[in-house]
C-alpha cells in the first residue's frame, strides 16, 4: 500500500451536497474530491448518472452524441469568442489549457 500524502487521514462515512462527514461526525466542505461542482447525492445528478450508465459508461475519449450535445450546450453559454470546448480528465488538465500561451521568441 502506498503511503498517504497527509498526516491525519479522513475516514469518510457519508457525503451529501458539498459536505463530507467523517466517521467521528465532523463535516468537511469538499472542495478537493473532484466533485464539488455537482456535489454528493444530488438527486438529479445521481439519476442522470444511472440513466447514462445503463446506456454507455465511458470517458470522453470516444465520440458520443451526449459529448457533442454537452460541448454545444457549454459553448452556447459562453461569449461568442469562446467557441471551442475541450473535454479533459482533470482540473489539472483544464488549468493547463486555461493558461494563456505566450508567443515563442525566435532569435
Strand content: 5-15%
Main beta-sheet strand count, sense and barrel state: 3 strands, antiparallel
Q: Within the largest sheet, what's the order of strands?
A: 1-2-3
Q: Overall mean pLDDT score?
A: 82
Count of discrete domains: 2
The count of DSSP E runs of length 2 or more, i.e. the number of strands, is 3
SSE-based structural type: alpha+beta
The percentage helix is: 25-40%
Instruction: Give the overall form.
Output: extended
Radius of gyration over C-alpha positions, nearest whole angstrom: 19 Å
SSE string, helices as H and strands as E = EEEHHH
Poorly predicted regions: none
Q: Which helices and strands, and how do they pair?
A:
Blueprint lengths: L11 E5 L2 E4 L4 E3 L13 H13 L9 H13 L13 H8 L9
Short description:
The protein has 107 residues and is of the alpha+beta class. The protein has two domains: 1-57, no CATH class; 59-101, no CATH class. It has helices spanning 43-55, 65-77, 91-98, and strands at 12-16, 19-22, 27-29.
Folded structure, characterized:
- With 107 residues, the protein is of the alpha+beta class.
- It folds into two domains: 1-57, no CATH class; 59-101, no CATH class.
- It has helices at residues 43-55, 65-77, 91-98, and strands at residues 12-16, 19-22, 27-29.
- The longest helix has 13 residues, at 43-55.
